Amino acid sequence: MFKEAINDLNVCVELRRLAEKEKLDVSEVVEELSKLSLGELLKLGSNFRRFPLGCDLVEVGVGCCASDLSVEQLIEYSILCDILGASIHVCAYAYADVAEKHGIDGVELLKMVREVTSVPMDIDHFGEYGPMRFPEEITSCYGLCYLKGGYKQCPKGRIHKRLKEKEKKCKNPEEWIKLVSVVSCNVIAVQGGEVHAASFNEMKKVADLARKLNKGVAAIMYAGDGYEDVIEGITAASKLNADVIFIEGGPFAKDLLSFVKAVVAARILCKGKVIGTNGAYEDQLRLGLRAGLNCVLTGFANNHHGYMTGFSPGTARRGMFGLPRVIRIIREEIRSSWVNIPAQRRELEGIAKAVKIVGEDKIYPNKFAWTSIGDAHWFNISKSPIYTGIKTADVTKTDFECEKLALLGGRYIAWILAEKADEVIVSDADEWVEAITVKTLLEKGINAVRSNGDDEFAAKNSDVAVITSVFPEICISILKKVPNAVVLI
Length: 489
Fold this sequence. Notes:
This protein is α/β, with parallel strands linked by helices. The chain is globular, with a radius of gyration of 22 Å. It starts with a helix and ends with a strand.
């Protein structure tokens, strides 16, 4: 099936079904992927990024913080990310350090950032007591491992030194998580990196707290040897019930092939369909994007993600401002005719509108037929201010109940609206999107037919035509052909 799936999206669907039912064994998946060439891996991973097999949005997450920044800098960097529509990556220890130097509580600093931003935020370096705390030799580290390459552990043997007594003084760990959308949990300890990460048991406690507070969970793992390390990492992510998987390459990937293989394995198996990297040399990043990455962590100068992603041995050092480089690399490797690359506020607002229209109770992780409506991005965005601030038409009061309904656009909104009519005609410019939408609706017992991308035909042969896109320019383009169509936004 893996060989066939390289050139057949229908076989990819069958593999995805097995993954959704947790009937794909991680070891067997990695074993099969090990038989494929680099070119085959790239094609297969790219297939699994396509709607509705995986997430086809490509975004950047940005570390705006570092222990030696001022409060003003941290807030200003965060505002810039908000304007760009880039998710904010919160290194909890850095927030705690900056706040401490300025005589305020760390969670108050996080609130200050949240008050002036609306994009999703994920929090990392968070332990069972709250923000992890590290000695200055770690917080000011200039990244020898990335600069020289070839390490499996911290070359100075100092990660994961923690100031546990300081951590225990945190009185409000839940308040930190309430302010963010996603909590990142590092599972590298189970891959043999006990020196480099907190224990899995501690990360499980953090993940359970995130779930209790109705937040998303991300798992961070090494690419490592591309085999046992991948099996152990993805298995641990599954035990955390992770929505998102981040794969670290850089010096912690044996070679390019191991990194790509890890990306593709996660691409196929990840519950929430969102795969990112928190660290990857430039060549790893370029191939990883082709293989299915759809989230890249980078950072401002002094933030460690600022040099961990997009640079190469000899240039990857603390102080590098990685965001511009990562954006350039993404644009050079990914092409799209319908969304910004990487995603910007337009895309985040579009997803927020989609969730408003569909309803939070119907989106991921809830199932629709063999999969879910949306992916982990939909869930994460629904837990951020950008969602609460979105205004849309009240779809529940719009009378779509009719004998024949034309759905102009075949993505997830169409799946939900299709339940309102006796018969639907689906029209989408993408032949695959139209075909898989109709097939999925038929599985749900909904009488659906294709129009082969002919919006005007679909509208003429229906009682009501609805444009299901949440992007204004696409709606305007369709309205020129079908002026009487209902627009949802």
